[in-house]
Amino acid sequence: DTAVSQTPKYLVTQMGNDKSIKCEQNLGHDTMYWYKQDSKKFLKIMFSYNNKELIINETVPNRFSPKSPDKAHLNLHINSLELGDSAVYFCASSQGLPGISYNEQFFGPGTRLTVL
Amino acid sequence: DQQVKQNSPSLSVQEGRISILNCDYTNSMFDYFLWYKKYPAEGPTFLISISSIKDKNEDGRFTVFLNKSAKHLSLHIVPSQPGDSAVYFCAATPLSGGGADGLTFGKGTHLIIQP
Predict the structure, then answer these.
(1) Candidates 3.40.1390.10, 3.40.1550.10, 3.40.50.620, 2.60.40.10; correct CATH number of B4-98+105-114?
(2) Are A21 and A5 in contact, with CB atoms under 8 Å apart?
(3) Is A8 on the interface with B (CB under 8 A)?
(4) I need a labelling partner for B86 at 20 to 30 A (CA). Which of B15, B29, B39, B112 fits?
């Protein structure tokens, strides 16, 4: 059984379009994340979210928005896609509770987004 | 500004020998450190972690060493096996945040195990 899954695995789209990437975890974790791996291979945090708090990396454009229909899902919506959004996007989850404990993050397989 | 640095983009080691991957950090707020392994077209997989109250943590063939004064950690793999060939990422976070801050990753080191 896949612990953290993402769909789609590949996404090719035109500039200006709006797209979504879905993420689901079946680990019962409380906190989920989105990371971006750019062309220089840096993995950078975009968002972290639990049922109480959304923390946004201030460098992330507001065209990106996470949406969580329930504790097991954290989807990423991107509006008005730009060429520079082309990257691999990873979803992750952990059982850490802010200020209380921390456990390792489990990552999904990634979604390669190509904006033409 | 890279807060976590892995200065070796690649490392080649003979099968059976020891692999040593290095990582440096600059942010004094980091007190929890993790190593992840990544194969092509897959997500990073957790390997081993260490908190700043320890200087060593061991799990099978993998040992992580932390030198807080030097802001340096290393991952030792003994003995190295062909399946260890992958990209290894060092990551760090402030433990008090409970993960809310996310992980700050290094750029990764591509480990190649030669038969």
Answers:
(1) 2.60.40.10
(2) no
(3) no
(4) B29
